[in-house]
Write a structure and sequence with these properties.
Length: 156
Amino acid sequence: MTANGRHNGDAVLVSHLAVGHTYAAAADAAGVSERTARRRMSEASFRKRVDEARVEIMSVAVNRAGNAALEAVETLIVLMRSADSESIRLRAAREVLALVSTRDGDPVADLIQGLTRLSGSEVYDLTGQVLRTALHYIPEEKAEAFMDDAGKVFAR
């Protein structure tokens, strides 16, 4: 296979493995044998590409879920304040109160607990991605303090 053909096949293989497809399904989509897919995954550099793709996919999913959650809360607030029906306003108010009152845990700790299935390097890579993403939304004059605080969290 040509270098370009292998590159294209690798990209397809990486994307399919990153989203959790079986070796057989990913290999079929990439036009290679399952044995080739398994051999490629035994190579550290290739496995790293798959891991990086997984981190990127997770980052996109977390961002989308966060945006959807914000929109859902905004919708509840709008309904709570302006719905014509008193029962809808009441239900929206109850939902907002339920959201606030059931959050007795630490959201960061909850997230970290959910990440326990990831390897150490995957958590490290994901953490870096999250911090880089967060820096895009933090005013420049506060970025250094944010990174100092993040360093203290990970020094524990």
